[in-house]
């Protein structure tokens, strides 16, 4: 049973252990994702040269793969990383950015899932529908579907791939196929900052290093929603929003978290 | 006839339509450019793998190519994107960063112009002089010439390539070779933030999706100048300048725009 | 003899001359490093295509090589840049990010040092111990050793490679093997911002363009510590810290610098 108190205990564990989170992610969000992991209390590393990935997977506590700016060389790196992580039981989070927008993205995401057997897949509704093989009408990397529309896709993907699936949106949905949770709150300014979805995946990666996949996904999405809500209260636009968001992630107290988290079972 | 009211109407169109702007741009500015496009109300996507570019050009409303951190592989991607955009009549903006600083940059910029027949070329004075074949004495990626010195180069390039040319500087010059406009204002802090020139090109790309090239270039440069001027009034240096700039781009009102835009016909 | 007044004079020289600092650095920190160089008053350029590096080294005042997100292609670029810089006596700063975390990183850093004969090597304690061939137990890219533990490694590397070595940490150590200086101060928020170590290397690069290596290293580390200390006084977390840091670097006065710098001879 997931409770706000349990999720907060995972935040404290991340802060205490500072797990090493290895990301191979897109070029647009690298800086924000590294800063968000540091603000949370985790230790980020980003590296993609296949030759050194075995050395680096040997010290990683979690792996996050994000295909946002994929190319043939980086797809190769991600496959090596997925394989090495699997061998070492390093928990894997996959963010299939833009699945559905090109055939290459859909296929790459599915190949990485097959190769790495992820603990968590985090995506928006359109991306999940694309992975589930449905007819999708995407607009680039932004979702044109609601989380509710994606609920069935999320549940069936979770059962098919034996993992936790997050469908992020105005309300986030977290499911392992049998048990489904919603996280509300957040802020309408979140989608006005590039890579906030990718940052959710990175943050979930930090929790996957210290908790089981369903807990990790719920904890990651919960702290993102709470930090965004607190930041939005001080922000004048997306520029100051990003600044306050990192500050909130860093300084968040137990009382702030428990006072703002909106967790409900579906 | 370009008027401040007309330019503002284009801002409202971008906000209403949220055009999908595809960029293949340099590694330094990707995050800022995506955030600026989101703050403006457009929808950014960045992707460079040739295999998926046909899929992505089919949904793009504009393409922005920026050679700031070019290499052989990315030049190949940019050429594919330019060709696919041309086939589909997707308007193209080219930013020839550092043209003149190396032979490769000048040649690549000219090759992309030939391949893609851009709607708009946005550059600083030194870069335009390099494209025009003049003797240039550049210092890296920063201009050592004034916009006034570049006026003749801008006009002749506009006529030669049948496009709109922007020579950005303390005063921006926008010309299609027959009609030339100046945009004043802005802030001396702009060149102290990396990639503000590149951001101009990205923003012009958003307008090129909804307006003809001369209008789009004027609207893009105008909103950059106005947002920078408003941000500078609140900034204590280049760090806070960037934050306030994104906030201003997001929250800019009609009255702010019309009260600050400095548009004159040359 | 290094004095605070001497270090400040180097700041004024950088501001007056705006040296062109060429970086081939990691994908995570490019934007911050370029912004820090601009805030300081230097002129940054980032480019990695081997074909244009001879043209660009001909106009560069300093070169900074950082292996944070190395791959085979970029290692090739860094070697070409190191060789071209050496031929033209362009001072070189090397940041061996993650040396010790993988064999490839340690070997690449040593190869670049051999190729380029750097003026300055800036690293954390773990990285220096790895370069010195000691048994190292690293955790990704963050140091698990103190600057004090690294003192012997720093001195012996400085003598072996005839260069200045910086071991950054809570107190920074700057040594040419015969003369050693400490810089205190700074802020505990610095390691909570990604790439602050890399930014030190970039800033040292700007000073290496105008001063001898020992001076340059001391001046760079000194201004980083002072700007961080001033920024921390205004910051609420790592998000606002980064904003205030750039503002402080830009607006720092002689009185601020002399009033806060903590320079002592070892």
Task: Report low-confidence residues of chain A grouped into runs of 5 or more.
Answer: none
CATH topology descriptor of chain A: UDP-N-acetylmuramoyl-L-alanine:D-glutamate ligase
- Could you give a short account of the major beta sheet of chain A? 9 strands, mixed
Work out the count of structural domains of chain A.
Answer: 1
Any idea what the CATH superfamily of chain A is called? Ribokinase
Rg calc of chain A: 17 Å
CATH class of chain A: Alpha Beta
Per DSSP E runs of 2 or more residues, the count of β-strands of chain A stands at: 9
Biggest interface: chains and residue counts? Answer: A-B, 35 and 33 residues
Oligomeric state, counting identical vs distinct chains: homotrimer
How are strands sequenced across the largest beta sheet of chain A?
2-1-3-4-5-6-7-8-9
Average pLDDT for all residues of chain A = 95
Helix tally of chain A equals 11
At CATH level 2, the architecture of chain A is: 3-Layer(aba) Sandwich
Structural class of chain A: alpha/beta
Tell me the β content of chain A: 5-15%
Helix share of residues of chain A?
40-55%
Helices and strands of chain A, in order, run as HEHEHEHEHEHHEEEHHHHE
Give the N-to-C terminal Cα separation of chain A: 13 Å
Shape summary of chain A: globular
């Amino acid at each position: 049973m997931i409770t706000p108190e349990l999720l907060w205990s995972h935040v404290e564990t991340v802060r205490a252990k500072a797990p090493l989170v290895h990301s191979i992610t897109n070029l647009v969000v690298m800086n924000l994702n590294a800063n968000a992991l540091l603000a949370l209390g985790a230790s980020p590393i980003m590296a993609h040269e296949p030759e050194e990935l075995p050395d680096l997977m040997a010290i990683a506590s979690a792996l996050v793969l994000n295909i946002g700016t994929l190319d043939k060389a980086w797809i190769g790196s991600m496959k090596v990383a997925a394989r090495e992580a699997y061998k070492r039981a390093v928990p894997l989070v996959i963010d299939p950015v833009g699945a559905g927008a090109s055939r290459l993205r859909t296929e790459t995401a599915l190949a990485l899932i097959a190769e790495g057997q992820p603990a968590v897949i985090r995506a928006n509704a359109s991306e999940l529908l694309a992975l589930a093989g449905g007819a999708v009408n995407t607009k680039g990397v932004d979702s044109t579907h609601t989380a509710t529309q994606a609920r069935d896709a999320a549940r069936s993907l979770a059962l098919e791939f034996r993992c936790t699936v997050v469908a992020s949106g105005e309300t986030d949905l977290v499911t392992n196929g049998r048990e489904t949770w919603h996280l509300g709150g957040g802020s309408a300014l979140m989608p006005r900052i590039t890579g906030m979805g990718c940052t959710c995946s990175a943050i979930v990666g930090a929790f996957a290093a210290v908790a089981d996949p369903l807990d990790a996904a719920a904890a990651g999405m919960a702290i993102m929603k709470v930090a965004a809500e607190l930041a939005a209260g001080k922000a004048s636009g997306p520029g100051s929003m990003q600044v306050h968001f990192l500050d909130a992630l860093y300084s968040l107290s137990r009382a702030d978290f428990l006072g703002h988290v909106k967790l409900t079972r579906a």
